[in-house]
Amino acid sequence: MSKFKNAFSSVYPTPQKRRKNYYILSDGWKLNKKNISVPYPPQSKLSFFEGKTEKNLSYTLDFPLPENLKNLPKGSKIYLNFCAVDQTAEISLNGEKIACHEGGYLPFKAEVTKLLKETNNLTVNARDALSHKYPYGKQRKKRGGMWYTPVSGIWGSVYLEVCGEDEIKSFAFTPDLSGVKVDIDCLKPCVIEVVLPSGKKLVKNKTKSCYIAVPDDEVRLWSPDSPYLYETKIKNDTDEVKTYFALRTFKTEIVNGTPLFLLNGKPIFLSCVLDQGYFEGGIFLPENPDEWEKDILRMKSLGFNSLRKHIKIEPEIFYEACDRLGMLVLQDMVNSGSYKYFRQTVLPTIGLKFGLDKRIFATKRRKFFIEHTLETVKTLFNHPSVVGWTIFNEGWGQFNSDKIYSLVKAADPTRFIDSTSGWFARKKSDVKSEHIYFHNRLLKGNGKQVLFLSECGGYGRAVKGHLFAEKLYGYGKTAASAEELTDKFKLLIDEMIIPSLKNGLCGFVYTQLSDVEDEINGLYTYDRQVLKVDEKRVKCLIDKVNKLFNELHSNT
Question: Is the C or the N end of the chain the one with fewer CB within 10 Å?
Answer without folding.
Answer: N
